[in-house]
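Attaching the record inline, Q. Sequence:
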Amino acid sequence: MRALKRKAFSTLSIYNKIANLIHQKDRRMKVLLINPPKKNTVWVGIPEIFEKGIYLFPPLSLMYIKTFLQQNLTHKVDILDGVKEDLNYINFERRIKIFQPEVVGITALTHNLIDVVKTAQLVKRINNNIHVCLGGPHVNAYPIQSIHLANIDSIIIGDGETAFAKLVHCLDNAGDLSKTEGMMYKYNGGVINGNPLPVYLTSLDTLPFPSRDIKRDGRYFVPATRTGLMTTMISSRGCPNRCPFCWTHKGYRSRSVKNIVDEIEECIGIGFKEIFFVDDIFNETPQRVIGISEEILKRRLKVIWGFKARINTTTFEMLKKAKQAGCYKIHYGVETGTDEGLNQLKKRITTSQVKETFHLTMKAGIESIAYFMIGCPHEKTREDILKTIDFSIKINADYSVFALFSPYPDTEIYKEGVHQGIINDNPWRKFLVHPDSSDNLTTCWEQYFSKDELLNMLKLAHRKYYLRLGYILRNIFKIHSILDLKRKVIGFISLFKLESYKYAKGKI
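Structure, as predicted:
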């Protein structure tokens, strides 16, 4: 699918097209946007005991679509976040019945595909006439497999705002879906029509800000969250880099500084005190971060914020300006602790650059979070993995997040593993069409280590990093609030739970 030519067009022209199509009606359709519960997820590198304690992001993609529909159509739209509410399927079904939707949009990741299919099945059991549309990263990577899934009526490929609005309008007016770009759909008992080519918006500034009327109760958080009134933002889409272990869409598009800070100002007006930017890379250039920081300072906005950054586009000037504007934490993807490993992962950085960046971040007074992968393809011996663990201690980050390397399907490393015979591709191919079980899926790089051996090394990494007396004392003196204390306690409890954690069939 990645070989297909990507289409892109101006959001503004789509606004005009939709405006010409829409006429006001008395009847309002009910549209429910769903983030499925996480009850049957496939392993993604982090033991499940950590997942709830590390992060819980608001469903930004659904929030964007909700606002777009509300501003361009007249229908009733709501979001049901099964992850945040931790709903079992009995309560999940009850919530859907209460809303009585006519159209349901479900966001899908490959690793929650079992729950996506269960959600679609549940919706159809409630009412087979409900139109079920699928979108999200999984659909972008596997459009053909997605449209063939049971109980799915249509899929959106690429950015979802305009295509989903057209879908809803056509369903309400018996319109012609074949003219909608970035969509595939079933008709006449299952005949498939449409185009699997994704459509990506080029002018992100023309999109309305995502709806943030979902309950603000402190249940959304990221590592090192300080307040209970945190939200996320995204200031760009796609990624300009080519990391072989990542499957993010590569068509990088950025919003303007004014547009980004306008949204920050809106968030502050709603009552949020903390913002985390979930861009795959926020500091695409140092000047980008400096520009955003200067605009925050110019408007005298009082907010704390953080972002995900690359090592080689971080400068001390950028860090100082971001700190002045309220930035208090930065997440860095380091991945591994040797120059050989960084080179093989195509990170385009060196261990010397990593150490210097963490030193400068500390000097600027900003907290740092380092991300590492244990069991990468270049780590052939226990000593190789120990080098990464020891390096994580040397850079002295405020927090380190350790995960086992997991070769995601549709990535360069995964395909190389299949080519070398290290990965059996058949279970994943079957899973993409019939995701009823995650058994036998390749979820770790097992060329040199078994899953049990890798899990033991993951435990060792956490012990060596977090159970140092100096580290414990440093964090005790850096507690900022009761919420911060609570998060730290949950984290340490998870560390002890990890020690007794066992490999289970289908996941670690």
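Residues 1-12, 19-26 have pLDDT under 50 and may be disordered. The longest strand covers residues 327-335.

More tomorrow.
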